[in-house]
From TrEMBL:
PANTHER family associated with the record: SUCCINATE--HYDROXYMETHYLGLUTARATE COA-TRANSFERASE
UniProt keywords, alphabetically: Transferase
Gene3D superfamilies documented for this protein: Crotonobetainyl-coa:carnitine coa-transferase, domain 1, formyl-coa transferase, domain 3
Organism from which the protein derives: Cupriavidus yeoncheonensis
Protein's UniProt name: Acetyl-CoA:oxalate CoA-transferase
Pfam family, one: CoA_transf_3
InterPro entries on file: CoA-transferase_III_domain, CoA-Trfase_fam_III, CoA-Trfase_III_dom3_sf, CoA-Trfase_III_dom_1_sf
Record EC number: 2.8.3.19
Top-level class of the enzyme under EC nomenclature: transferase
Gene Ontology molecular-function annotations: CoA-transferase activity
């Protein structure tokens, strides 16, 4: 087993103490781009090993989706002996990622102040629920709970329905991305100062950061955002619309696109109708416009319509299932499904670099008790 010689982060060594989602996702991003990531789990393993079904060899798919390109060792950090092993590993590390409850690392003598005094170049990244201080400081955070508190659930769902959780752990995942971004910012700054620093990515902050354009709207007009189903609050037609077969999603963002749509549907007069001639007017008169469009589209095949419109310059798409999306020819072309020895399949890295692309070197559960040998 060898390190990537070409990854953008080749030569960067990461100790990943995190578990569940946000922290491990951060570690996987760093590992995909060449970092040598050593994941430290408690003796019983990361909780997500049990989050199934489905399972393979007794380990849940959930764990497999977040822990590629890491090697795994187990330490009981409640013991002094295993904390000594961790400190030895940090001698050669550039980055520490952890998501323990605020105060835990400090209780073990592994807080940032202590570690930075011993390892001044170490970037210490913490994924937390709410940060360490403030009214909610130190409280544990969970994706769905933060979706509720950050206002995300209030704007998700049908207009006449209940608030809904987004159907994937979007807060956890964007927190993992923010953590990876923070690590890269700190590593870049270290090139100038020679010093590491503390990086924190909190679920609460990340959840709030997702509120565009609803926050921007509220800052300007003071009106509480409401649920609009699949429709965009500011743009129309930017919504799911019915056809003669399956629905499609229209994403018309300007007047030119709207005129092309109307011409294709053989209702060119709609583009000149004062109710629909401008983006603002279309948004205000969206209910009537949707009825006009669907009356014409109900005579058409959804897939054919979507393919034809997007080729003509009208942003739109069929509404695909997860299997259909993962097996789409463009998914294959973009290398967004990764296959590795042992039957592993997972999602590919979404960031493409021309000279130092992501590489896939270790499947989840690969064991290791030290960093890989440094390469010249």
């Amino acid at each position: 087993m060898t390190q990537s010689k070409t990854g953008a982060l080749a030569g960067i060594r990461v100790v990943d103490l995190s578990r569940i989602l946000g922290g491990p996702y951060c570690g996987q991003i760093l590992g995909d781009h060449g970092a040598d990531v050593l994941k430290i789990e408690p003796p019983q393993g990361d909780d997500t090993r049990t989050w199934g079904p489905p399972f393979k060899d007794g380990v849940a798919s959930y764990y497999f989706g977040l822990n590629r390109n890491k090697r795994v060792m187990k330490l009981d950090l409640t013991t002094e002996a295993d904390r000594s092993v961790l400190l030895a590993l940090l001698e050669d590390a550039d980055v520490l990622v952890e998501n323990f409850k605020t105060g835990t690392m400090e209780k073990w003598g592994l807080g940032f102040d202590t570690l930075s005094a011993r390892f001044p170049r170490l970037v210490h990244c913490r994924v937390s629920g709410f940060g360490a201080d403030g009214p909610l400081g130190g409280l544990p955070g969970y994706d769905a709970a933060v979706q509720a508190m950050a206002g995300l659930m209030s704007i998700n769902g049908e207009a006449d329905g209940d608030a809904l959780r987004v159907g994937l752990p979007v807060v956890d995942m964007v927190t993992g991305m923010n953590a990876a971004l923070g690590v890269l910012l700190a590593l870049q700054e270290r090139e100038r100062s020679g010093r590491g620093q503390f990086v924190e990515a909190a679920l609460y902050d990340s959840g709030l950061s997702l509120l565009h354009p609803h926050a921007a709207n509220w800052f300007m007009n003071g009106k509480t955002p409401v649920r609009t189903g699949n429709a965009h609050p500011n743009i129309y037609p930017y919504d799911t619309v019915a056809t003669g077969t399956d629905p499609i999603f229209l994403a018309v963002g300007n007047d030119r696109q709207f005129r092309i749509l109307c011409e294709y549907l053989q209702v060119p007069a709609l583009a000149d109708d004062e109710r629909y001639a401008t983006a603002g007017a279309r948004s205000v008169n969206r209910v009537a416009l949707k009825a006009e469009l669907e009356a014409r589209m109900r005579e058409m095949d959804g897939k054919v319509l979507a393919d034809t419109l997007v080729a003509a310059g009208v942003p739109c798409a069929p509404v695909l299932s997860v299997p259909d999306a993962l097996q789409h020819p463009h998914t294959v072309h973009r290398e967004m499904v990764v296959e590795m020895d042992g039957g592993y399949r997972g999602l590919g890295a979404p960031v493409k670099l021309s000279r130092t692309p992501a590489t896939y070197r270790f499947t989840p559960l690969t064991e290791g008790d030290q960093f890989l040998p440094k390469e010249d």
